[in-house]
Structure formats: C-alpha cells, structure tokens
Amino acid sequence: MNSPAPKATEPAIHIEGLNHSFGTKRVLKGIDWVLPTKGIVGLVGPNGAGKTTLFSLIAGFLNLQEGKISVLGQSSPVAPALMGRVGVMPQDAIFARDITIFDQLLFLLRLEGIHGDEAEQRAKTVMQQVGLETELYRGAAVLSHGMGKRLGVAQSIIAKPEIVLLDEPTAGLDPANARQIRSLMRELGKEALVIVSSHNLLELQDLIDEVGVIFDGELVASGSVEEVTRRERRFEILLDTIVTPELVVEMKKLSQVQKVEYEEYQLTVDLDAEYEGGLNGALSQLYSFLIQQGVPPHEVREGASLEQAYLRLTGEDQSS
Amino acid sequence: MAASDRPGGLTALSVLNGFFALTVGGTTIQRFMTSYDLMEVVEGEFQGRRRYRGYLQSLLDEGVTPWDMQILALIGLVATLLLSVSIWGLLKRSNLVGRWLGTLGGIALAAFYLLSINWLPDTILRGSGLSIARQLFYPFFLIFMLHVIFRRDFLFHPGRSG
Amino acid sequence: MIQVGHILIHARKLMVHSLRTGSGVAFIFLTILIGLSLASLAVAPVELGITDAERFRESASQAIGIGLATATLRLGEDDDNLLSRMESGDLIDLGMWARYLVLENPMLLSITVLLLGLVLPVLLPLGSFTAISSDVQHRTVRYLLPRTTRLSLLLGRWLGTLLLTWILITLLLVSVVVYLSIILPPDSTGSMVPWAARCLLALCCLAMPYVSLGILCSATFRLPMVALLAAVGITVGLPLLALSLQEAWEPLGQILYLLPWGYSHELLSPDVEKVRNAVFYSIGHSLLFMTLAAWRFRRADL
To answer: Could you tell me if the ipTM is greater than 0.90?
Structure first.
C-alpha cells in the first residue's frame, strides 16, 4: 500500500525469540530468523514441526504469545501499514462457494485499493499465470485440489506484494502445473521475498536461495542452501569395473569419507566438508585412493544434498 | 472435482419457485372449476349443493363472469408452467430457461395476484389480502434476484445453455 | 485501526453475498413471510368480521396491558386482578399506555408492530449467524486478514447485516401500511403514516442490539450452527429464565435487562423520556455487544 519500503539493509522479516504453544504443547521454541528483502526462501521440516504455525504467526492469523516478529520494518505482523504488502497462500483455506472466482478476486483487489478496469485486467492476468483462465467465472466449489492450490497462489500475488508466503504451493499438483508455479515463484523472487514451505526437497534445491530447517519447533539450521549443505557433500562416482565389498570396506577407513553406498558400477560417497584439507583436498585424495586400488573413476557427479542435510538435521537419516 | 458451484441462493430460489408453482397451481385448478360452475349457474344447469350455489350466485351478483375466472385460471396455468420449467433452468443456470422463463413466470405470478385483487370481489379476498401481499412479494423478489444478484451467473456460466 | 473504506466494502460484500447464499435467501423470505403472517393475524379478525372493531379494540387493549405488565415484570401473583389494577392507581400507566397504542394510534399497525417486536429478536440471528463464523470455519478469513484489519472486517460485517435487516423491516412495514391503507377508510390513512414512521424507527432501534448479539455469537463460535443456536438460545432463554428466577427472588428478574427485552416495548411509549431512554439503551447494548465481539475477534486465532 502506501507505506515506505524498508531500507535496503533492513531485513524483510526479523523473528526474535519466538515461542508458541497450543494448550500445553509447545510448537515453536525460541525461533530466531532474519530474512532478506528479495529472493526465495524455503521452509522445510517434517509434518507437525511447526512450519504452518510459523507461517500463521508471520501472516498474523495467530496471535503472538512470546517473542517478536517485525515485518517490513513494522513491529507487528498485523500492523495496518502492512495491509496489502504481504500476500499469503494459506494451506487449508477455501474460497467462498456462492460467489464466482472473478468476483472474489475483484473484492480482494478492492480491499487493496485497486478498482475498475485495472482490477479486472489483473484478475484475468493472474488467473492466466496460474493456468486457470477458463475457470474465472465459475465458483470455487468446482475446482480440484490442485486447481484450488493454484487459485490460492493467484490471490496471494494478485496485488504484487513485497512478501509472499506460500504454504506447500505445489503439493498435489501435476508436474506441468508444478513447473508453472515454480517458474512463477522464480519471477516473483526477483522483486519480492518469497517464503515457500514444501516437502519436496529436490524441487526446493533448484528453486531457493535460502533455507530454514525446522524440527520439533526449533529452527535447527538456516542460511543459504550452500551454507546449510556444506557439511553434506555427496558425490556419485561411476567406475568402469564392478564395485566390490572389499573396496567399500577400504574406502570407509578413509578419514574424509563419512558414508559410502554402492551398486554395480556406482559409488555414492559423502565427504566431510570440514576435512582439514578442505573439500577439494578430500576429493583429490579419494581420486588417488581409487587409482591406487586400480579402479580409476570414469565420471564424478556432485549429488543433491539438501535432502541429506534435512535428514541429518531432523534425525531421520537411518542409513548412516 | 466437487459436484457443483451453483450458489446456494439459486438452489433456494428454485425450491421457492416450486413452492409457488404448487400454490398458484392449486388456486388455478380452483379458478377453472369455479368458472365452469359459474357457467352452469348462468345456464341454469348447476346441480351442486345449495350453499355453494348461493356463493356462486353472489359472485355473479358482484359482477364476476365465468370469463374473468377463466382468464385468471389461464394466467395461473401459465405462471405454474413457467415457474415449474424454470426450476430446471435455475439449477442448470440456463440463461433462457432459468433467467428469462423465471422472469416471465414471475410476471405471470404477479399478474395473477394483481388481477385477482382487481377483479374478484371482497367476499373472496377478505381475510386473505395480506397473504396475497405475501405472494406478491415473491415475484418482485425473484425478478430482482435473477436480474441483479445472479445476472452474471447466467451470462458467464461456462456450462450454460441458451 | 478502523478503515472506513474497508468497512463499507465489507458491508456491501456481505449484503450481496447474503442474497447469494441459501441461508440468506431463507432469512429474507422467512422474515417477510412471518412478518406478513403476523400482520395477517392482527388484521384478520376485524377483516373477516369475526369481531367488530370496537370490541377488538377493547380486548386488544387488555391483551396489550397484560403483555406490558409481563414485559415490565409487574404481573404480580394475582393475574385475575390485573385488569382492575390497571384501572386503579397501581398499574394505571400501563392502562394508559395500552390505550395510547390502540385508541390514539392506528390499532392494527400497533398490534402488528408489537407482535413483530416479539418475533424479530428470534428471527434476526438467522441473518447474522454466518457473518463471521462461516469464514472462520472455512478459513476464508485467511484470504482477508493480510488485506484488512480485523476490526474493519467485524464492523463491516455488522453494518452489512444491520443495513440488510433495516431494508427488510422497511419493506415489511411498507407492505403492511399500504395494505392497511387500502382496507381502512381513507381518512385514517393520514394518521397512519407518521405512526408508521415512528414504528419503523422503533423496530430499527430494536434490531440493532439483536443484530449485534448475533455478530457477537458469530465472532465467538467457529461453527455457524453453534453461533445460531447460541444467539437464539440466549434471546429466548433469557426472558424465560428471568421470569422463573423472579419467582424465586424478585431482584433476580432484573437479568431480563441483559437483553433489550426489558425495555424494547418502551420504544412505543407515549412518554418521550422513556422512548429516548430506550433508544439510548438500544445503542448502549449494541455498543456493549460489539465491544465484546471486537475484543473476542481480536484475540482469536484464525
């Protein structure tokens, strides 16, 4: 709306000492998190970890019990000056069934101070962006689960907010629609801060700039994807010969190797990023070891490891 | 997908259309029967109960003709048919069958009650005046709803017919 | 923070939305149907010639007197004696009041409005029970909260419900007045219009606290049906409770004043002072209910 944007150095969201309980159950425990003004931030964690509660507190759906959340320089997430500057796609909200989607979007735009032709144009454009242009004059009751998700995304970005909160926006979408939403998020991330929660870590890895891992109500890791995954360097090594168990046993003895998995011609190795020789040193020593064993690597690929980091941080990694 | 995105108000209107179709349908049958009985009284062939004959005679004395009754019955029949057919149209959000036949049904219903007030003597209407006012409220309400509140639903409904 | 523009947008949306929902259409139709039926109840005995106007006026005066005595908790133990008490010094004000309604003003309109005053409080929750609770139940409110303040939303929904109710009451009263003007001798029509205006103001004042109570229930309970039951239960239960408690210990009967039941009839009093007080009480009750609703809604996790 009319309030000034925060200074470039000011974070878009600053969370400090956030605690929250439902009855006697503590669902958030001392969350501290600072989020930048632009880019895409992923919020990951197992079911019931507190992601939606954190979203709801930032969006002002829940009342703050303990701690502080400042949003775009405002000391409260429900400050009137924030109205219209934060777009939210809640996980389980549904549109009214007795009014057409078009009229509901126009109503939301009217609350943002956008009327007439401009509002109509925006409603049509945003529905096109999420691939729902044919449903504009229908009631929300006919939408499938995936279409409802896309409509949720559409309403959250319709007024071009400075912060967009998307709670599992691609859950239940088919691959084509999920890709459409991802590319929309990339576009949004250039101009605004997009916070997205998802269980699809492979999807997030390619999408996000920063990540926060929440587990049992605590923010167990946060920062750039690079920072969070630094300790989990996974490499896939393809060999010309079949891997033998003896080779694996020998490899596990190497101090820079944390974990080895294998199948036929492929080794999957997790290296310790804090190895004294650094990651490059650890990798070159592994090369030397394999050549020494008479199995020179045919190809080495740096594998995805957000999932690995997540599993380690949440204690769900049973394989190591 | 969910079954329908029809607004609850349209469903309620279709139920009310059914209710009023039944009400006016019942009165229509009554008017038809009265018109034939009046004809028989005029022609001196009426064989019914004496008290009912007296009532019919009083209608004739007040200037009601069998034709008046038949015209009223005919308008009532049209209203009944239009309102009944429009139930389907409202449920399907058909612009022609729902909105326009519903509108014509409303006009016929209003005409039926207005002409009843105008043509029929107090002996028939006494005590039921406010119930006629109640019935008169509905056609205007129906027309307002179809052309103001639900206009877009009929015009832009993707599966519309007509 | 109150945003006047947003309040008007919410009010307009509520009015249009109410007309599009099944419950909204049912509310409108039932209010008109029941309202006209009550009017019919008042008019029919005279119109059908079951009784003549003078006799009807007399018995209506007595019935209204008893009604007023009940409403003001002055029924006493000996009901048979009530009429003579009304004529003597004890309840003379009630007797005069009843005569004011049936002798000095159009009787049929007075009776219709008194009957409406009894029934409207029970009907009005039908128009307000979904105002907030439906959006909270379906979490639709989460689409609104990033765009509007909770107070604006609450006040907008209240205003929309109130305006819709006032429009309905006006429609209802206009129908009754037009009808009475047709069936009554033309010379009585002139006195009908100012009295009808007074009755309209009285009913609009009466509607305000009951609509506010409906909104309070809607903002308090997440399930619309629970909100409806609570609003109707409180409205109907309180006078019954007051009457039975009064029998146990007289001062307890004063709980009747927790709702407008205790003073709403005074909106049609011949005493201007009483009318003014009743209007203030109505506004006060509405303010109280809306303050409670705002307090509850502001603290609610949505």
So the answer is: no
